[in-house]
Amino acid sequence: MSFLVVFNADGAAIDPNQLARMNLKVATQHVKLLGGRQQVAFVEHQDDLSLSAEDLAHRVTVSGGFSLIGRVRLDAREEICSVLPELFATKSDAFICLHAYVRWGDRCVDRLRGDFCFVVWDEHRRRLFCARDQIGVRPLFYAQLNNSWLISDSLELLARDRSTYAELDEYWIADFLIFGYPNDMDTTVYKQIRRVAPAHVLTISDNGGVIQQYWKLEIGDPLYYSDSRNYIEHFREVLTPAIKDRLPKDRVGIAMSGGLDSSTLAAQAVKVAGDPAKVVAHTFYFEHLVPHEEKHFSSLVASKLGISLKLRAVDEHRYDPRWYERGLRTPEPNPAIIRAAPARIIAAEMAKEAEVWLWGEGPDNALIFEWEAYLRWLARRNWLRLSAAAIQYIQSKQAREWLATISKYTHPRTSETNSSLELPEWINADFVRELRLTARAQQAAESGKNKHPWHPRAIASFTSAIWPAFLEQFDRSISGTPLCWRHPYLDLRVLSFLLSVPPIPWARRKRLIRKAMRGLLPNEVLSRDKASVGNFEAALLGKYGFPPLSRVGPILHYIDRTKVPATLPLEKATDLLVNVFVLDDWLRSRHARRTSYEVALEDGLRGLPPPS
Questions:
Q1: Is residue 291 within 8 Å of residue 266, measured between CB atoms?
Q2: For residue 204, what is the enclosing H or E element?
Q3: For residues 542 and 550, what is the distance between their CA atoms, to the nearest angstrom?
Q4: Angle, CA 508 vertex, CA 268 and CA 413 arms, to 5°
């Protein structure tokens, strides 16, 4: 269930036609009119997905003229309740969130942690307060149409209004073709619809809308403990409540690869749940497409923990050769569409075993082994720590790692910065010149360099636009599946700690997690290296080939069709080439949708809503 808020800034009462033209399938009980003139509408839109109660849109009201609608899951809710005596444990997270606004106003977001997007109507101040969580797990979109504002957690919902999808944002499309994701966190493919960026709030009144950032990821000096055991204890102390806050009342699922991070989540989930029967794991593996050992390692973990494990070979599920004939649609061009049909079937089966699933993304980025930057920083700050860190680095480095280091400096490769500036040759040259895309790519490369003194790559990874773009793929309004995904490693308590530990020795091969899981996970798993999945898409495309590319139509404005290779060259980035065909299919479906609606208008059927 998604939510929609309509606000008439000129004070005009909500006209039922405003909702009708968006083709909303809502009953009267799902629409709440607010404001003295009923100029605000809170709408709960029921989609076709079977969702957990904890993932539905919630609408709550308290005395004094305050109402909230949104999707809210809070971390450390006991801390907030301890300073709000009017609350008690049985209240919903949305209710707690609204009371936090009543108590602290705009600064309530300084105290809120978790996955949330919500809108508060403040009757006294006659305004809307809209907020999105710090990391960007929940999406939030908005559009201004003359004197009306639309806010929703669903881009597809806002794009049903013809006025909002009339014009595309060509910079968004350029970023999609160059980088694979939008380089600006506040844009969408539609020029009239914007995103609220992570860690931002939007306030809307009759004077207009104002966007403000309320939180920033900042890591100071490394966290130093005199006793190394304190790092292990600290890691367990933050991960345990992060998992506890995300566990449902019944069974929880783990997307378990057999690697260190997801296996750690499984082990800790069993510990927190107190019963292995409450934890179920799914492992997706390749039988023949690429070399893969996940089936073996995940089976070891499941046996050690005593949890249920479902093994699924997905060689033919990672690419659907008929994806462009399925009629499936995504709110924006999305490469996940090439495997959407089999993914939705698998997700429906997973939902029968558990509604809430945990994903293990985070440590690979937070524990990047940035030994050079760390040693340079220590050289300017503390010679004693520098000496100790240098000794630890030398003593813990394996022979194969020394060989890799020697190769790195004796056979230098082209810098990553220069290679990242090359635009794909198939982008239309006129389009490149018109939007000055070469300069834009260079600017993006420079802005992506984080200036953090000792952990630049790790901090940059979590401040990059790629991160919220990645997380939104898990949201059911975009994925089209009923699964509720949660990310314990992105809990701010866990993330801040992982980013604060000294890279030497704790980030080398994620030594911190390996030490913390000793005795809890099989030794084979603790000692294995990070597995490389390989380019499975290239293998599948080599087998099935590309779909047909349009010879006419809007795609030619962006793509030089004569330079799109008929087969996949090994040196080309597979994902960027796939995005050409994804964009083409999306543009065709959009064009068909607009044409049918405009024909209806020409026939005088102005009350007809645009097709969903």
A1: no
A2: strand 200-205
A3: 20
A4: 130
Angle of helix 260-273 versus helix 229-244 axis, rounded to 10: 70
Q: Which two tokens stand for residue 342?
A: 């089999």
Helix-helix angle 371-381:383-396, to 10 degrees: 150
Pairing status of strand 31-34 against strand 40-45? antiparallel
Which residue type occupies 240? T
Q: Residue 32's CB: how many other CB atoms inside 10 A? A: 17
**Cα 438 to chain center, whole Å?**
27
Q: Does residue 448 sit in helix, strand or coil?
A: coil
Query: Tokens representing 272?
Result: 């927190």
**Residue 401: count of CB within 10 angstroms of its CB:** 13
**What is the pLDDT at residue 400?**
54
pTM of the predicted model, to two decimals? 0.91
Distance between CA 422 and CA 434 in Å, rounded? 17
CA distances 277 to 247, 251, 308, 354, 534, Å, are 14, 8, 7, 12, 33
Question: What span, in angstroms and rounded, lies between the C-alpha atoms of 346 and 255?
Answer: 12
Q: How many CB atoms lie within 10 A of CB 202?
A: 22
Cβ pair 358, 265 in contact under 8 A: yes
* Beta-carbon count within 10 A of 447 CB: 13
pLDDT digits (tens, 9 = 90+) for 347-372: 999 999 999 999 999 999 999 999 99
Rounded mean pLDDT of 236-253? 97
Where exactly are the structural domains of the chain?
A: 2-213, 229-366+456-536
Q: Look at residue 28 in the predicted model and tell me its pLDDT.
A: 61
Are 92 and 60 spatial neighbours (Cβ–Cβ below 8 Å)?
yes
Query: 229-366+456-536: which CATH topology?
Result: Rossmann fold (3.40.50)
Q: Are 264 and 374 in contact (CB under 8 A)?
A: no
In the structure, what pLDDT confidence band is assigned to residue 396 with cuts at 50, 70 and 90?
Answer: confident
Q: Which amino acid is at 138?
A: R
Write down the residue that tokens 């919220």 correspond to. Answer: 468
Contacts of 280 (CB under 8 A, 6+ apart): 251, 252, 253, 254, 307, 308, 309, 310, 353, 354
What one-character DSSP code corresponds to residue 187?
B
* Sheet (strand 279-285) strand order: 308-313, 279-285, 252-255, 356-358, 484-486
The three-point CA angle 268-271-277 to 5° equals 105
CB atoms within 10 A of CB 46: 15
CA distance 95 to 115: 15
CB-based burial of residue 429 (10 Å sphere; 0-12 exposed, 13-18 middle, 19+ buried)?
A: exposed
When the candidates are 1.20.1510.10, 3.30.420.280, 3.60.20.10, 3.30.365.10, the CATH number that belongs to 2-213 is 3.60.20.10
**What is the distance between the alpha carbons of residues 300 and 1, in angstroms, rounded to a whole number?**
38
Helices and strands: H and E segment counts in the chain: 25, 17
Quote the pLDDT of residue 204: 98
Structural tokens at position 182: 């939008």
What count of other Cβ atoms lies within 10 Å of the Cβ of residue 322? Answer: 9
* Interacting residues of 374 by C-beta distance below 8 A, sequence separation 6+: 222, 389, 454, 455, 502, 503, 504
307: which 2 tokens?
């949890």
Q: What angle do CA 379, 381, 383 make, to 5 degrees?
A: 55
CA distances from 201 to 130, 157, 212, 386 (A): 5, 20, 5, 42
Residues sharing a CB contact under 8 Å with residue 29, sequence separation 6 or more, in sequence order: none
Please give the radius of gyration of the chain, using alpha carbons only, rounded to the nearest integer: 25
